[in-house]
Amino acid sequence: MVPHQRRMTSWYLGAWSCVLGLTVMAPAEVLYVGGHLGRDNQAGTASQPLKTLAEAAGRINASHAPGPTTIKVAPGMYCLDRSVVIENCRPYTEQDRLTIEATVAPDDPNWSPALMPVLLSIEDPRPSGNVTGRTETYSLVVRNSHVTIRGLKFLGNPLPNNWHCCVSRIGKELDDLLVTQCLFLGSPAGLDIYCAALATGDRFRVDHSIFRQCHASVVFWDGPDGLGGKQCAMRYCLVEGASLAGVWTCRTRNDLEFHHNVVTHSEYFWMRKTGDSIPYRLRDCVVTDVKHNSGYGVESGATGPTGPEVTYEEHNVVRQGRIILDSDPRARSYLHVAPGTLGSDLGTGLFRAEP
User: Fold this and answer.
1) Which one, of 116, 292, 117, 271, lies nearest residue 194 by Cα?
2) Where do the structural domains in the chain lie, given as residue ranges?
3) 98-102 and 202-207 as β-strands: parallel, antiparallel, unpaired?
4) What confidence score (pLDDT) does residue 325 get?
5) What is the mean pLDDT of residues 203-211?
C-alpha cells in the first residue's frame, strides 16, 4: 500500500470510529410522572405521563441501558402505599446520574410552594429489625450510587407509633447521593417524621433544604463496618423544631462540610454515636434556642449530653438571638428566614439563587 493510501485508510478508520462512537452514545432517559393525564400504562412522556412514582421506579429497575435518567414529577399529592425503591443495576456515573426532581424547581421564576410535589406515605408500618416494639416506613429507598433528589416536599406518615424515614440510602459501597431544595414537614400531631434523610456510605450531601418538626433532620449513619462516610456535607439548610437533633453523625469522617445552616428551637443541635469525639468544623451558621448543644444517641433516641471530650471547631457561628421565619404559606419565601432578621444573610433555604 502506497503512503497516501495508508493515510486515506487511517482517515476513514478514524472517521468511522467517530461515527460509531456517536451512534453508541445513549440518549438521556426522561420519565414524566403525575398530572391529571397520568396513567401507569402510558409511555411516561410529557404528553403521556405515568401516574405513580412506583411505576417509574419499576421501569428504571427493569432496565440495564446506559446513560442518565431523569424522573420529572409534576405538582400534586402522591400517596405512597409502599416504599418507592430504586435498585437499578445500570452503571450511573457522577455525570450520567439518576435524578428525581420536580418539574418546576424552586429557582424557577414561576415557582411557588404550592407547586412542590407532595409525597405522603400511607404504607402500613412493618416491624423494625433493630428496635423491639417499633414499626417503620420509608418514602424513597435508594440502593444506587449517583442519585439526585430535588425540589420535593415530604410529609411523613400519619400512622401512630411509626418510625418514618423520608429518604434512605443504606450500603457502605454506595456513593454520591444529593438531596437538594427539598422540604420536610413533620408534625407530632399526626404526620410524624422520625428521620428526614439518612444514609451510609460516601458523599451523602444535603443542601438548600428545610426541615420542620422532624425528630432528626439529617443522619449520617454508620456503615456496616462501623465507620461513617467520606466527603459528606450539610449546607444552606434550615432546621426548626427538631425533637431530637438538627444533625446526627455516627463517626462520619472529619472532612464533613457543615456551613451556612440555621438550627433553632431544637432539643439537640448535634447528636453523636457514643465514643465519637471527632472535632467537626462548623462555619457561618446560626444555632439558637437549642436545649443541648451536643449529645449522644442510639437508633432509638438520645442517651444524654456529651461531656468535655467532645469539641467543635467553630468559625462565625452565632449562638444568641431569635430566628424569625416567614409564616405566610402563600409567600414564595414561606418557612425561610425573614429578610433583615438574624440569619437572613446566609443564603439558607430552598433557593440557590434568586431569579
Assistant:
1) 271
2) 76-92+111-318
3) unpaired
4) 97
5) 97
